[in-house]
């Protein structure tokens, strides 16, 4: 699958998720190896106003979303794949005033489950803020029931 198709699918998926719109998340890059999303720094995601550090929940959302959308890098057709399990190990707080990037890759795809791993970083991917592993359930294109999210993503609309 071409990089352009992966980026288009990822952007379509991201634009259908209202909470990601509110957070201002965007697709930074993607190819068959994995996906990178950007979470811009903003006052609305600060967890501690005294230090300006981003709330851990915003980083958790970034990493869950990055892992979930990274499935478009490996699946031949769109499938909704809800999170089964997500583990995040925080290495250190994000530096105030800087955007956070999330990278994720799918390292194993089975008939029922997709296994992902990744990391959050700011300036240097070699100095991660957090590491993540996640598993996502494959529902299959036929068993999805034509829900609103699936139709929105396939038709290219945002929420």
Number of helices: 4
Q: Please list the strands of the largest sheet in the order they lie side by side.
A: 1-2-6-7-8-5
Shape: globular
Q: Any idea what the CATH architecture is? A: Roll
Fraction in helix: 25-40%
Secondary-structure content class: alpha+beta
Summarize the structure.
With 159 residues, the protein is α+β, with helices and mostly antiparallel strands. The protein is 26% helix and 33% strand. It has helices at 3-15, 18-23, 56-69, 148-155; strands at 26-31, 34-39, 46-48, 53-54, 83-90, 100-109, 113-121, 130-137.
Describe the structure.
With 159 residues, the protein is α+β, with helices and mostly antiparallel strands. It has one domain: Thiol Ester Dehydrase, Chain A, CATH 3.10.129. The protein is 26% helix and 33% strand. The protein has four helices and eight strands. The protein has helices at 3-15, 18-23, 56-69, 148-155, and strands at 26-31, 34-39, 46-48, 53-54, 83-90, 100-109, 113-121, 130-137. It has a six-stranded antiparallel β-sheet with strand order 1-2-6-7-8-5. Strands 3-4 form a two-stranded antiparallel sheet. The longest helix is centred in the middle third of the chain and has 14 residues, at 56-69. The radius of gyration is 15 Å and the shape is globular. The model has no long low-confidence stretch (mean pLDDT 89).
List keywords for this structure.
single chain; 159 residues; 33% strand; 26% helix; 4 helices; Thiol Ester Dehydrase, Chain A; hydrolase; EC 3.1.2.-; two-stranded antiparallel sheet; 8 strands; HotDog_dom_sf; globular; alpha+beta; 6-stranded antiparallel beta sheet
């Amino acid at each position: 699958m071409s990089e352009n198709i992966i980026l288009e699918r990822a952007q379509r998926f991201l634009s259908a998720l209202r909470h990601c719109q509110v957070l201002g998340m965007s697709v930074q890059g993607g190819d068959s190896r994995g996906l990178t999303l950007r979470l811009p720094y903003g006052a609305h995601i600060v967890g501690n106003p005294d230090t300006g550090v981003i709330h851990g929940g915003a980083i958790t959302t970034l990493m869950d979303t990055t892992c979930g959308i990274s499935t478009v890098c490996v699946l031949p057709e769109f499938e909704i794949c809800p999170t089964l399990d997500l583990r995040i190990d925080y290495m250190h707080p994000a530096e105030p005033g800087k955007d956070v990037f999330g990278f994720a890759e799918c390292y194993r795809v089975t008939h029922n489950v997709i296994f992902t791993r990744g990391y959050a970083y700011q300036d240097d991917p070699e100095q991660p803020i957090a590491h993540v592993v996640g598993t996502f359930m494959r529902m299959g294109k036929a068993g999805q029931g034509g829900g609103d999210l699936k139709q929105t993503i396939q038709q290219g609309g945002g929420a």
